[in-house]
Amino acid sequence: MGSAFGISSFCLNERPLSEALERLADLTDCVEVMDEGSHRLHDTELLESFDFDYSIHAPSRGVNLASLLEPIRRASVEVTIACFSLAARVDAGVVVHPGYFAWPLERAEAERQFHLSLVELKESALDLSIPFYVENMGDWEHFLLKTPDELSLLDGAGFALDVGHAHQNHALAGFLDARIDHFHLHDNDGKADSHSPVGEGTIDFSAVMKAVRRNGTRPIIEVGTFEGVISSLKALDGV
Fold this sequence. Notes:
This protein is of the alpha/beta class. The protein contains eight helices and eight strands. An eight-stranded parallel β-barrel has the order 1-2-3-4-5-6-7-8. Helix 3 (70-89) runs parallel beside helix 4. The longest helix is centred in the middle third of the chain and has 22 residues, at 107-128. The radius of gyration is 17 Å and the shape is globular.
């Protein structure tokens, strides 16, 4: 079925991906696959058996595109490009995390390392004819891209606004003024990154949906439970 919203497989991340896709097919024709855990992708055979428009959230656990340890940065790029290659088979865009550093004094070097990774990712995405989007991070110490003044780090790459992360950092209003290529929708109380259903936190989704319409994108609901997806769709109806 069609829907104004895509849905992340994250809501069913403890179930096999085949089951998740079956259940999501009753709610939407657009799915973002969380390429982690039980939904880790090794090929696209299963994805191609469904008639979804896809995006893919690249692996982030163990991946650090800003690592000061060059072998780790290179391996992180390789893992991400492998995800790009799978995404190209199903005409999917890819969401990536920007990376992190261990100590405050390492920030400038981490930014340079992230730039090196971006150069390689842009080249791969161009070769494969897919878009990719860098996601803003939550209130996690030493991560890049937590506030709007860091958007220049993207150097022309696509931007994925995670509204829950932005709200947690008290930065949502500033991010909503930016050019946004992809949206993750979930709610929270401004403190914990709870991935709560829309309407159960303190985010003003009327402002968020104005930005969605202005940017002409189909947002992805990324909440923690399947029941939360259903309540989020109801909460967003008519917003």
